[in-house]
Amino acid sequence: MFEEIIQPGATWSHVLKRATALRITDIEGGANVSATFYNWENPCERYNLPDTLKAQHIAHLTRGHVLYSDMGRVLCSVIEDTVGWHDPLSGCSNAALVAEKYGEARYQEHRNDCHKNAYDNFVIELAKFGLSARDMAPTVNFFSKVVVDARGNMRFASGHSKAGMYLELRAEMNVLAILSTCQHPLDPNPHYEPKPVQLSIRKVAAPSPDDPCRMSRPENERGFVLTERYFM
Amino acid sequence: MTKNLFDPVAVRYDAIIPAGEPWIHEIIKGQSLRIIDVAGNQAADTLFFNADDYEDRYSAQDTIRAQGNIYLTTGTKLISSNGNVLLTIVADTCGRHDTLGGACSMESNMVRYAIEKRHMHACRQSFLKAALAWGHGLAKRDIAANINFFMNVPVTPEGSLTFEDGVSGAGKYVQLRAEMDVLALISNCPQLNNPCNAYNPTPIRVVIWDPPN
User: Which of A57, A85, A148 to mutate to test the interface with B (most CBs of B within 10 A)?
Assistant: First the structure.
């Protein structure tokens, strides 16, 4: 249907219609895309991190997994993934973190290369849809991997995503998706070097009865049933 | 694992929260809050808000990222969405608390257990009931990812998440010091479908006291 590039450190939002798919491709390698999702028809239904993790007994996201709303429904499914691991745990960068890590770079001197942070990006984008910081949901970090060891320590895996790797999300509802290409908050790179990603949106078939995301576990089967009932 | 005794003279509040009940209360900067797992293996689903600005609320993701560890225990600073320290955990005889497993809801119970479970009582019903009764505009959009005091939800290096028994017990407690004026909202979990509480939800006790002069 259309393609677009999200420039480094930038924000993108769109209401993904049900049965469309959004493919996100890491153009150069080392990208990070912070993302969050809302039911556009009723935005107080939104991406729920704990429900997504505990329904599927996961602490990472990849092909076959789905993103749950807080209402027991599937907002979107991961239908393709060549990266293998996306981080749902670490949240997004904010103004204090970016200032401390990378210093200040104002628009006056740096034009569109000025330093931006994901939290402020999200809140500004939410405002365009009549929402506010009160509506901030947890965020996923696509293309990034954070491993938790036996003692609970979180470790960022550098160099995880390579140029050309992609994932594809299928919208199962009409989903307001907000994306930001700011760096992962745990990325040890001391330089402000966010990366661009390519977006590609296409129409796709509704999930079949034997859809891999639906059949990956009984919880997801019920999640799809509840999502279908919403549209009846 | 650390212990801390309190002076009974300074106690300002002491109550039992039965299973399935919410509790909402302000805690003033400097005051201590102790939550006691009276009978053991109970889950105290807990949210905190900046008392002056409810938009500035406990953030699970910011809290675990700030300390680089997913488990909450003594020394953990509970970070708000605006980067403020709401409270600090100053004592903990349990050793580990969860903030990734979230609160049960009617809707998540339908996904996790069976669609026929819709009618069963759940934490997010309690959260909403207490938030609406408290007023001041608190609503569903303010119910973010919470803390589960006394719950053990390990994550493996392979990226799976499990619910396990065994870190809490009768009389174990966690104690927090308020670093600013906060509003606490607790749902004492009514879950009957999960072995984490041996299918037997039990009371918790909350005690608030003033700082030493």
Answer: A148
